[in-house]
Amino acid sequence: MHPTQTGGRTRPGAGVSDSDRPRLARHVRLTFCRTRQRRILLHPETVVVLNDSGADILELCDGRRTVAEIVAELGARYQAVPDDEVRQFLSRLVARRCVELADG
């Protein structure tokens, strides 16, 4: 585990559990790009253009909601939400140090 200044942690190579509480890392920002007309994730020296699903997931990553709560919220908005895909998406962002996890 890699502790961070914000008290979160990253676990490269490890999965994201339902009780984890994801949040954007301190140096990462979710914003709207007028030029691209898409939501983007700003990371030092990197811009990640998000699809609508990815942006919807990240908007719910506030450090208070658990992964299970995020999946439930997305399930209430949309017909089907594959929870394993949400966890895989978050795991990739944890590995890239864009998302930090707090224990649930």
TrEMBL record:
The keyword Repressor does not apply. Pathway: Cofactor biosynthesis; pyrroloquinoline quinone biosynthesis. GO terms for molecular function: quinone binding. Keywords: PQQ biosynthesis. Residues 1-22 are annotated as: Disordered. InterPro entries: PQQD (IPR008792), PqqD_bac (IPR022479), PqqD_sf (IPR041881). One of its GO terms (biological process) is pyrroloquinoline quinone biosynthetic process. It holds the Pfam family PqqD. Monomer. Interacts with PqqE. This is Pyrroloquinoline quinone biosynthesis peptide chaperone PqqD.
